[in-house]
Amino acid sequence: MSKLPVLAAASLVVASLMATATARADALSDFYRGKNITFLVGSDPGGSFGPYAQVLAEHMPKYIPERPKIIIKYTGGESGGLGLANSVRGNMPADGLTMAMTQQTIVLNQLLQPQYAKYDAREWLWLGNMAPVRNMLSIWHTAKAKSIEEARTNEVIIGATGPSSPTYIVPALMNKFLGTKFKIVTGYKGAADLNLAMQRGEIEGRGASWVSVQLAMPDAIADGRIKPVVFASITREPSAPDVPTLAELIKDPVQRQVAEFLSAESDFGRSVFLPPNVPADRVEMLRAAFEKTMKDEVFLADAARLRLVIEPMSHQELARITAKVVSSPKEVVELAKF
Question: 69 phi and psi, to 5 degrees?
Fold first, then answer.
């Protein structure tokens, strides 16, 4: 008999929790009914940003109450997506109807270019990462230098979007630490623009993600017209295992730390986030929707059809890496600046 009050109390707690969950679900449904979600992408539609954004936008709504349509808006990749990052604080609606994805270098650039970075990535509410993206430097077949050793004595014209982009950072760091003679020309809008510039003969190489080359120029890889010479990543690229990472090429221990600091950008890959101050129930729901999408069989099949690698990373891990990057030693950060 003495157990009855305890059981009754437990039943009340369960009922209360169920009622709270139902009320929260109802509130989320009421909010998202008849609305769309804007997905801001700090790139042009070319390269790998477009396919990743599109496949996520197609499948994630099934896990969001009322299945709102996710509408992609490309904001351009100039200066490594700096414009989008700077819009997060104050200009991006914090209501759960706007999410974003921008260049993976943007967290590092908070330290590298503080005069331009009007944001703090530690405030961002990460949903998760679809996949790490290994940046690289590749050389077009018309270049006089086909290797790093040859680039120490022969000038190679490299196209880039801007100084806060991996298209600029990787060759600039190689000039600084490895003595290469890469002439960096900025002002290109994104990977697609850089590809066209190589084909027109304006430039002789370009950086950014290797997956953007794999998606847009598979034939050029197959016939040897374009080859990666280095990867700015923590680990080697599985599809090009003989190509070294930047840190592997640098002997000086402090300079190697710099290379490792800059290579941490690969961990941010194709990460999606919300601005600060979004209501907690909407953040929790969108994080769960993102996680479920990463396990969705139809999503994974579509990604495979598009030749997209899916290696999800949690929002907790992204927050941890962000905090670690932002707290990097001052000496390392100063050496990484150009």
Answer: -75, 135
